[in-house]
Every structure is written in C-alpha cells, then in structure tokens.
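#help-structures
NK: newbie question, is this the right format to request a structure? protein is CoB--CoM heterodisulfide reductase iron-sulfur subunit B family protein
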Amino acid sequence: MTVMTTPTVVTLRYAYYPGCVAQGACRELHLSTLSLAQALGIELIELKQASCCGSGTFKENSWLLEDTVNARNIALAEDLNLPLLTHCSTCQGVIGHVDERLKEMQTSQPDYVAQINGLLQEQGCSPYRGATEVKHILWALVGDLGLEVLAQKVTRALTGLRCASFYGCYLLRAQKTLPFDNPIHPQSLENVFRAVGATVVDYDGRTQCCGWPLSSYATAESFAMAGSRLKAAIAAGADCIVTPCPLCHLNLDSRQPEIERAIGERLNLPILHLPQLVALALGVSPDELGLGKHIVSTKPVLAKLGLL
C-alpha cells in the first residue's frame, strides 16, 4: 500500500531591517516590502530597536564605531535566531561587510570582537556572536524562495514590460563573497525579471554608480552621472529601471526633474523598487504598492500592463 504524505511547507522568516530611507523619503519601499512578503507567505519580524547602518560614513571617523553599531543590529537578529533581511543595497553592503569582517576577526582578532561586545554590554545589548546571515531581499527571492517558486506564484505576468536593472554599488562590491551572483556580470535581477514575465533590457551602466554619494558636495557631477545612466537605459528601450537600492531610487527618481534641467534633456523614465515590480506580478494593487508616490509618474508602466 502506498502511503501518501503531505509536502512540508516551510515558511520563510526573517528579522526585518527596514533602514532609514524606506521609513522616510521612500516610504513606498517599506509598504511594498510588507505587501510582497504577505503575498509570498514570508514572515517579517521588524527590528524596531535597530539603528542606522551609517551608509558607510561611520568608518570615515572610526571603524570601531561602524562595527559596533552594526554588530548591535546583527545581534538583534541573532536574538531571534533569524537572518537579518534588508531591502536596501547600501544597508546590505554596510551591515553585510561588518558581519563578514567580524566573523573573520573572531579567529584572527578575537580581542577586537571582545572590545565591541564589551561596548554592547555597557549599553545592555546582546553580544555579537556571528551566528546569522545578512541578506538582501533580492538574495532571499533568488536563493531562499527560488526563481521557480516565484514564477509559480505569478498571477499577473508582466508581459511586454521592458525592465532595466540598476544594482547599486554596495550590493555588488562591498563584500568579498556575493551570494547567488557574480559581482562583475550579475544576473540575479534579470533572472527575477524573467521569472515574473518581464523583458530584460541590457545597457551600459546597470552595475555602475548612480551618483548619489557625490550629491551633497558635487551636485553637478552627480546629476551628470545619473543622467548618463538614465539616457543609456532609455536608448536601450527600457520602459522602467528597477533598483534594489532606495538611495539609487532617490537619485534617479526624486531628482530626475533636476537632472533633466542640468543636462537639458527630457527623460521621464519611471524608477521602480524591486518589491514593487515583483508584487505587481503577484497581483498586488498599484495603490497598495505606493506607485502613485513617485516623482516620475509610473502611469506609463501601469498602462503598458493594462492597469489603467
């Protein structure tokens, strides 16, 4: 007699680190991440006591400061016995790099890690143990959920939508080991596009800098850099750029009108957050994803998908 068994359903659970920008200037990223998680059956436990990662600036004053602040963020996830999940390329790069370094230093420089844990103890915080992972939502989709499962969950294929990726510097280059991808010739975003039925647009600039780090002190150069990326995507036939980095989104979307004035050209290219794109394919409404909150209208994207 054959005994039928019910497949075990594994629920993905993460300690959710929303970061600063998604709770402020890009609130739609936070909302769309929550909607995407719900649509995929992913459980997110928000780390409400977490602090800013520093965006890579803390180490300009003190490596110890950057390491201690982010060791605390990681320890909050360790307290839950969960991976730390972020949807920000910059947060991934900073916190992931700290985690990578401290795991190595547990063997090579244990006194340094002990110093960090002493500082955490003074503040009543749990020690850093190096017992979890720091994981961008892109890696969670590709590596934990899997592209085949993602494709099976699509209810509204994004057929005909031409998507250009924009990875962001920190996601590709901040860590020694890049999971699920190649830092020089990445394909994880493009593979997600294919899984949700969109068309991949290749163009020069998808792995380069958007110019955000220059924007506070070299605005003209920042705008010129961002403008060149946008123009290259437009020339390649993109309907939109999709980015896993809210800082890239700020520079390419929020400042696009200023970029247009600086370079003397009309651009009007919508910039989507990665969770927005994927959640659209899972049937989530554009309003729930905050697609009306962008500076550059996303209506051309929605019209192409028959959602207007």
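mod (FA): yep, format's fine, and the tokens are attached above. The CA atoms of residues 51 and 66 lie 11 Å apart.
NK: thank you!
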